């Protein structure tokens, strides 16, 4: 009987967050007013992106085994105070519930933590810049 064996193997090797998600996340960067320069720096201090709002950037969700990445997003525009937004990871629902429901012990402990797919980032960051006061 191959069916029960295949079902058992599938349940033990499933990694829901990796199957459904990805190790990277597309994040929209917006400012009010638009046209601000934006830079994204990872937790290690490396500048991973520079551009002008509105824009989007593909960011890695994981920093290492069971370690999500954190980003500092800085917005600057002439005549306005700079804005700084901290973008941090949270646990993906697919990682938490998907691996429980589908029995993905290997996915829960190995695959999703190694790929970073266990994490999620907000898909949009908006900075409202305040005018410089004279």
Describe, in plain words, how this protein is organized in 3D:
The chain has four helices and eleven strands; from the N terminus they run ααβββββββββααββ. The strands form four sheets. A four-stranded antiparallel sheet has the order 3-2-7-8, with no helix packed on it. The protein has a three-stranded mixed sheet with strand order 4-1-11, with no helix packed on it. It has one domain: Immunoglobulin-like, CATH 2.60.40. It is of the alpha+beta class and 134 residues long. 28% of the residues lie in helices and 40% in strands. The N terminus is likely disordered.
**Could you please say which CATH topology applies here?**
Immunoglobulin-like
CATH architecture title: Sandwich
CATH class annotation: Mainly Beta
Helix content: 25-40%
Please work out how many helical segments DSSP would assign: 4
Could you tell me the strand content as a percent range? Answer: 35-45%
The low-confidence runs, each spanning 5 or more residues with pLDDT under 50, are 1-20
Largest sheet: 4 strands, antiparallel
Element string (H = helix, E = strand): HHEEEEEEEEEHHEE
Spatial order of the strands forming the largest sheet: 3-2-7-8
Cα end-to-end separation: 80 Å
Gross geometry: elongated
Number of domains: 1
Rg on CA atoms, Å: 19 Å
Integer average pLDDT:
78
Secondary structure tally: strands: 11
Helix-strand makeup class = alpha+beta
């Amino acid at each position: 009987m191959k069916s029960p064996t295949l079902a058992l193997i599938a349940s033990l090797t499933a990694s829901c967050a990796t199957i459904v998600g990805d190790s990277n996340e597309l994040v929209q960067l917006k400012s009010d007013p638009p046209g601000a320069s934006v830079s994204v720096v990872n937790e290690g201090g490396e500048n991973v992106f520079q551009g002008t709002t509105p824009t989007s950037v593909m960011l890695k969700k994981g920093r290492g085994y069971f370690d999500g990445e954190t980003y500092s997003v800085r917005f600057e525009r002439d005549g306005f105070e700079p804005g700084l937004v901290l973008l941090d990871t949270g646990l993906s629902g697919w990682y938490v519930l998907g691996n429980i429901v589908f029995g993905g012990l290997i996915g829960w402990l190995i695959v999703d933590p190694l790929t970073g797919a266990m994490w999620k980032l907000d898909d949009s960051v908006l900075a409202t810049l305040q005018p410089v006061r004279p």
